[in-house]
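Might you be able to consider the sequence and fold that I enclose below?
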Amino acid sequence: MKSAITTKAKAITRPISTSFKVLSAEILDEVVAIERHNSKSPWPTEHFRSSLKNSNNLSYALMCKDKLIGYVIAALAIESADILNIAIDSRYQRQGYATKLLSYLVSEFSEKGAKEVFLEVRVSNNSAISFYNSKGFKQISVRKNYYMKNSNNSTEREDGIIMRLEIATTENNNAL
C-alpha cells in the first residue's frame, strides 16, 4: 500500500519597491504609451499636457524602481475631487498596484481637505467597476452616451457610471 504525503506551501513573494512622484512632462511619452495600450479611446497627448499644467490637478506617477508602471490625474476642488484618468501598465495589473495608487491618491485628497471622490467608468468595464466597489466606491448615477466606444468611430457611444467614495472618516481611508 502506497501512501502519499501532500503539503501546502505558501508562494514566496518578494516585496517590490514602489514609489510615487509628481507626474511630469519628462515621462509624458511613457504615460501616453500606457494610455494607448490600455484604452480603446485614449486621451490625446494634449489632454495630458493641459492636465499637468492645471494647478488644481494632482498628478502622480507610480514607479517600480525607475520604471513608470502607473499614473493618476485628478482634479481637486474645495471638499471634493474627481479622478480624471488612472491606469496601470497592463504587465503590472492585478498585482495590487492600482490599490497602492488609489490609496496614495485618497490620502493626498484627505490631507488637502477633500471629503469625497468621484469618478466615471465605462459601463462595460466590469473589472474596474468591481475594483472600485471593493474599495468602497458606490454607484450614484449614469451618464448616458458619455464615452466613445472606440477612437475609430465617434458615433458609437456607451454609458458611463458615476461612482463616489466618502473619505471624510479615517475608517474609509483604511478600507483602501
